[in-house]
Write a structure and sequence with these properties.
Elements: H1 39-61, H2 68-71, E1 76-82, H3 90-97, H4 107-119, E2 123-133, E3 136-145, E4 147-155, H5 163-169, E5 177-178, H6 183-196, E6 203-211, E7 216-224, H7 244-251
Parallel strand pairs: 1-3, 4-7
Antiparallel strand pairs: 2-3, 4-5, 6-7
Length: 269
């Protein structure tokens, strides 16, 4: 059995804490009637709270639209190279950009930094991003490197054509500049060379291994040549001045011979 004891109200009890000590809210405590709070006393407290909460919400939603002109003159608080690993040593990189933490941001200094990095010949693209950070600004120097061909590897070829012939067909020169846009024409050249040697069903894939530290790019081509087409006879039509066997013998065509693409013009046979 649970016995309930009604505790007498004690206004001075330490567990009864008034959230707003300067607001006396008259409460009607009559048996059989609903407890009500007078809005006349609540309104002066609620409205300031609502205004304060709305102001905080609006300030959180308004983005910082600071542009370059607004950021210029703010102190530089951080400089971040992207990617972190650069082809230049850190000391050389810092010397080239000429930007210093604590110095005021100047658009002229940023343009000079980009020009100095381009002049090294190590970069394909450079951009500088500025982001407000407190009273200062953080700079992100985003770079794309120049790469150079360190090697062209041909895998899965069938001689002829030789690997060296296929490597030459790519027109990717060792030590020359390399960009991803150069791979598509190199692939087209390889397929044309394979087709000219009878591999009409040849397929190939490639991948590039780039080393940011040395700015070298190794290009690897994987060839699936398929079956080489072979000469399987000839049919002659029209008026012949010589027997068919003589024409075939003179042309040097033999069954089983590797078939290569020939440009045959008008001839008297």
């Amino acid at each position: 059995m649970i016995t309930r004891r009604d505790q007498p109200e004690n206004p001075a009890s330490p567990t009864n804490r008034t959230l707003f000590p300067h607001a006396e809210l008259p409460i009607n405590r009559q048996r059989g009637t609903n407890t009500a709070i007078s809005l006349w006393y609540v309104r002066p407290l609620v409205l300031p709270i609502l205004i304060f909460v709305c102001a905080i919400a609006l300030s959180a939603q308004i983005p910082d639209d600071s542009g370059p002109a607004d950021l210029e003159g703010r102190p530089i608080v951080n400089i971040v190279p992207v990617p972190e690993e650069q082809p230049l040593l850190q000391a050389e990189f810092d010397q080239k950009i000429g930007l210093r933490i604590g110095a005021p941001l100047s658009m002229a200094d940023v343009r000079a930094a980009i020009g100095a990095l381009y002049a090294t010949g190590r970069y394909h693209d450079i951009s500088v991003e500025a982001e407000p950070m407190g009273e200062g600004v953080e700079l992100r120097i985003v770079t794309e490197f120049n790469y150079f061909v360190s090697g062209v590897t041909i895998e899965g070829s069938v001689d002829p054509p030789s690997r060296e012939q296929l490597r030459t067909a790519t027109k990717l020169d060792l030590g020359g500049p390399f960009t991803e846009e150069m791979v598509e024409p190199a692939t087209t050249n390889l397929l044309e060379r394979l087709h000219a040697n009878g591999f009409y069903g040849a397929q190939l894939s490639y991948h590039v291994e780039a080393n940011p530290g040395t700015q070298e790019a190794g290009i690897y081509f994987q060839i699936r040549p398929g079956v080489r087409a072979r000469f399987d006879g000839v049919q002659l039509s029209g008026t012949l001045t010589r027997p068919t066997e003589t024409v075939i013998h003179t042309a040097g065509w033999r069954r089983g011979l590797f078939f290569i693409r020939l440009q045959i013009g008008r001839a008297h046979v």
